[in-house]
Structure formats: structure tokens, C-alpha cells
């Protein structure tokens, strides 16, 4: 693995889902058992499902870790949608509003990106940073707004490594932010 691959791995939507699951689980409850439950449910739904698909494709040498082939990537979207939907349902029945809204943001973003992916590449890496930071801004208020600057190095790396064009990197971020705003404002 070269340094671009390492950076790409640690800034993937799967990795950022894991990082932010810690934050959102802490924000949702001060009770340790509830925190652990939320952490485990979110990681099962947002991290484990797509990871299993990528590992399966990669181990069979059907894809690289970035799942660069657009057609191959579609199967990962389906796994991620399934996992995301399970998380959404669990958090609905557990009456965990913040975790539900975050899961719903992931679910709707994945649906939109899966459709876009049929015709055009769009950056899930930049979406993976923008979505949880936008949700965090709704949870904590304007104090979290500067965190949006964290997406800039991710955009730069995706374009520099030729994984995406600048338009694809920017659109991934903008669209994920807009979908998350929609979820937190209207749902």
C-alpha cells in the first residue's frame, strides 16, 4: 500500500462512519450500556455490512480496496443500503432520535449516490466526511461548523490520486451535506 492508499483507507466512508459512531453514540446517551448498544448497532449497520462486501470482492481479486470499477461498486452500495436500513429501523424502534437521523442521512445519501453511480462517479470519501460533520453541526450547533474544513484535504487527495475529478469530489461533499440538512430540518 502506498501513502495514497493508506490515506484513502482511513478517510473512506466506512472508516469515518466508525470514527463518528463514537461521537454520536456519546452524544446520544451518558448511560454506558446505551452508548455501547448505539455504538454496536451503528457499526454493524454502517461499517460491517459494506466492509464485508469490499473484503469479499478484494479477496477474490475482483476489485481493489477503493472499488474503482463503477459497476462493481454497485454491489457495495446494495450491501451498505441494507446495513444502513437495518440501523435506521433499529434506532427508530429504540427511540434514539439522533442516531436515527444520522442513519437516515446515510441511508438517503446512499440511495441517491447509488443512482448517480449508475451513470457517473461521485465521491463517497468526501460525502463520508461531510455527512457526519453536518449532522454534528445540527447536534452541537455552530461550534462544529469549522470541522467542515476537514473535508478539504480529502477532496485534494481524491483529485491528486486521480480517483475523482474535482467536480466529483465537490459534488460528493455538497450532496451529502444537502441531504443531511434535509433530514435534520424536515424529518
Structure keywords:
187 residues; mainly alpha
Structure description:
The protein is mostly helical and 187 residues long. The protein has one domain (3-186). The protein is built from eight helices and no strands. Helix 2 packs antiparallel against helix 3, helix 5 runs antiparallel to helix 8 (166-186) and helix 6 (124-140) runs antiparallel to helix 7.
Write the layout of secondary structure elements.
Elements: H1 3-10, H2 13-28, H3 32-59, H4 70-93, H5 97-117, H6 124-140, H7 151-160, H8 166-186
Helix pairs in contact: 2-3, 2-5, 2-6, 3-4, 4-5, 5-6, 5-8, 6-7, 6-8, 7-8
Total DSSP E strands: 0
What does the largest sheet look like?
none
Looking at the structure, what is the overall shape? Answer: globular
Q: Give the SSE order as H and E letters.
A: HHHHHHHH
Number of discrete domains: 1
Distance between the termini: 41 Å
Q: What portion of the residues fall into strands of 2 or more residues?
A: under 5%
